Structure prediction request, 250 residues.
Amino acid sequence: MLAPGDQASTEFSLTVLGSDGSYPGPGGAGSGYLVKAGGHCTWLEAGPGTLANLQLHVPLDRLDAAVISHCHADHRSDLESLYVALRYFLGRRDFPLYAPEELQQVMRDEHFDGTFDWRVVSDGESTQLGPVRWTWRRTDHPVETMAARAQMDGRALGYSADTGPAWDFSELGGGLTLALVEASLATGNEGLVQHLSARQAGAAAAAAGAERLVLTHIAPPVDKSEARREAEEAFGGPVDVAAVGRTWQV
Ligand SMILES: [Zn+2]
Ligand SMILES: [Zn+2]
Prediction:
């Protein structure tokens, strides 16, 4: 039985702030998620439009850290707006920002140091953020890109970030209670670029033994109903499609 206050300390949730693949579609947003765990708030991916949606769920002075998988604009462009908010309106310095080294190199010329406390993540590393243990694995993508496993107690979120099929989603480890996997491509376009189709996302999540699958990073021209159907066939069970404002408990 839960005692008063236990609900907040055991919460482990994923809220979608944006889920469009590679560019935002009409009224949509790039990649962005809020991971809340035990009152600790991490902004995972800062794609275009996601800073605005983030603030519907948590005020910026309550945000604890940001985690960015790679330097492509659809995952990080709103960091520039976060910088303006923190530096000129909230007076906040040394905001923890976890990302591959390449992101820091891309943004170095813009003098973000001092506002952001850059923390470089690399393949195989783990970091504790509040009650959550984050572990990063490098994926199959043209720039250094980190998939993530976020674990709290016996629950684990596996996030593919952007990847082609040459990286094995199972590298995030077993026991995933929720898999958030990119499905950028229509099946007919498999292999054209380093991304997955919904069919490949479903097969990857099944091979990893994930309990549940949420598709994300679907490109705006791709039919979401068809993507879901193909993923369910490959996954062997029900599949959800990420949409702005939806929340799942991990
Ligand atoms: Zn992307
Ligand atoms: Zn990318």
Summary: The domain at 9-249 is CATH 3.60.15.10 (Metallo-beta-lactamase; Chain A). The chain has a mean pLDDT of 95. Residues 22, 31, 72, 74-75, 162, 217 surround zinc ion (ligand 1) (CB under 6 Å). The helical segments are 6-10, 50-54, 73-76, 79-90, 101-107, 198-207, 224-235.
